[in-house]
TrEMBL record:
The lineage of its organism: Bacteria, Pseudomonadati, Pseudomonadota, Alphaproteobacteria, Hyphomicrobiales. Keywords: Cell inner membrane, Cell membrane, Membrane, Transmembrane, Transmembrane helix, Transport. The complex comprises the extracytoplasmic solute receptor protein and the two transmembrane proteins. It is found in: Cell inner membrane. It comes from Pseudohoeflea coraliihabitans. Coiled coil: none annotated. Its main location: membrane. This is TRAP transporter large permease protein.
Length: 426
């Protein structure tokens, strides 16, 4: 297995994309170990890895998010968040956090959120006198709210890989997302008072109701998704298709900002993003095949028991490993790569599988904003035209807040399990 890991890291270092690095590492393993006869099984494993009806939710939710964004939804959400904050010192920074929280119900992916919110909020904060690195760091920190709120692509994939209820996972991520949002808002307001950040312009009274009315359809999308699934009106896959129809209706009939060109672009971008995700899932299935050959998951579980039999120690160790993994791998690729191992380790932890899913996803998302290689850091640095090292320093207090929320998710079951218990499925 050492050979596989070294070859995988080597391919990544020389710039080969994650999906192809996974496939080439698997091929290298078979060649060196003289097991080329197993190569005939690779196409079957790849097809089996993506032959899951629930995976259809991914392209549909990506498309729904693209359509809502093309319909100028980001600007509507930002203005609505500005109305909620009012004239509070540091209010524009608070708008950034609130906008990220609201937009998370549309995008479902941290990178999409960092790009969409960052393109609007980072220049606005810079014009208002905020330090560029702070504006970029805050946008990156807010971007990890998206994968905790429905329709989270990472939670969907976790549900597919483990057979966990996607509706339960969607509900379980909501409270941790609000806690993280509250933590970031407290940080923003305290920093604003300490550093005398500017007061934002208030929204005129006559504009408030129209703003709320235009933002409401976007805010209702996650409610429709979770409510429909939970009530048994439709399945997760059907919910994703309904989200697309809903996004088209909002963009064409209500906002009237969608046109043929934007719709074609949204479909094209959704197709390319879906192809990338499915290729990663397919290639990672080959890795799972090799892990099974080597019996690695069971060996790792036994080694962890050798370290300690205390569940809290194992949870801390697992969190540390996942945080490191999240530094180097895109979350969806990391999930497919590690879930065969985590499925063996899970029974040792003594926690609910839904709670475990939120913990795993939050771990990997924190990795995306952690220096030096967090992907969202590169996105916001490029948007803000700010050196990465300055953004990395500015985001450290926000990472600390995210780690506190991660500890609460890991050790306070009620944080993730209360909502699923309050809204039992049909």
């Amino acid at each position: 297995m050492t050979l596989y890991l070294l070859s995988f890291l080597g391919f990544m270092v020389i710039g080969i994309p994650v999906a192809f690095s996974l496939g080439l590492s698997s091929l290298t393993y078979l060649i060196v170990n003289d097991q080329l006869h197993l190569l005939i099984g690779f196409p079957q494993k790849m097809i089996a890895g993506i032959d899951n009806f629930v995976l259809l939710t991914i392209p549909f939710f990506i498309l729904a998010g693209n359509l809502m964004n093309s319909a100028d939804l980001t600007r509507q959400i930002v203005r609505f968040a500005q109305m909620l904050v009012g004239r509070v010192r540091g209010g524009l920074a608070a708008v950034n956090v609130l906008a990220s929280m609201m937009f998370s119900g549309v995008s479902g992916a941290a990178t999409a959120e960092a790009s969409a919110i960052g393109s609007v909020m980072i220049p606005a904060m810079q014009r208002d006198g905020y330090k560029p690195e702070y504006a970029a760091a805050l946008t990156a920190a807010g971007s990890i709210l998206g994968p905790l709120v429905p329709p989270s692509l990472a939670l969907i994939l976790y549900g597919v890989l483990t057979g966990t209820s996607i509706a339960d996972l969607f509900l379980a991520g909501i409270v941790p997302a609000f806690v993280l949002c509250a933590g970031l808002l407290i940080h923003v307001l305290l920093k604003a008072r300490r550093e005398n950040h500017p007061l934002p312009a208030s929204v005129p009274a006559e504009e408030r109701w129209p703003l709320a009315a235009r933002a409401l359809p976007a805010l209702l999308l996650p409610v429709i998704i979770v409510g429909g699934i939970r009530s048994g009106v439709f399945t997760p896959t059907e919910a994703a298709a309904i989200a697309v129809v809903y996004a088209l209706g909002v963009g064409l009939l209500l906002y009237r900002t969608l046109n043929a060109s934007k719709i074609v672009t949204s479909f094209y971008e959704a197709a390319t993003m879906t192809a990338g995700v499915m290729l990663i899932v397919a290639m990672a299935s080959m890795t799972s095949f090799i892990l099974g050959i080597e019996n690695i998951p069971r060996e790792i579980a036994q080694q962890m028991l050798g370290i300690s039999s205390q569940p809290w120690v194992l949870i801390l160790l697992l969190n540390l490993v996942l945080l490191i993994l999240g530094l180097f791998l895109e979350p969806l690729a990391a999930l497919v790569l590690v879930m065969p191992i985590l499925n063996e380790v899970f029974p040792l932890l003594g926690i609910d599988r839904v709670q475990f899913g939120v913990m795993v996803v939050l771990n990997l998302m924190i990795g995306m904003i952690t220096p030096p290689v967090g992907l969202c850091l590169f996105i916001v640095s490029a948007i803000g035209k700010t050196p990465l090292e300055k953004v990395a320093v500015a985001i450290l207090p926000m990472i600390a807040i995210a780690l506190i929320v991660l500890a609460l998710v890991a050790f306070v079951p009620s944080l993730t399990l209360t909502l699923p218990s309050l809204f039992p499925g049909s």
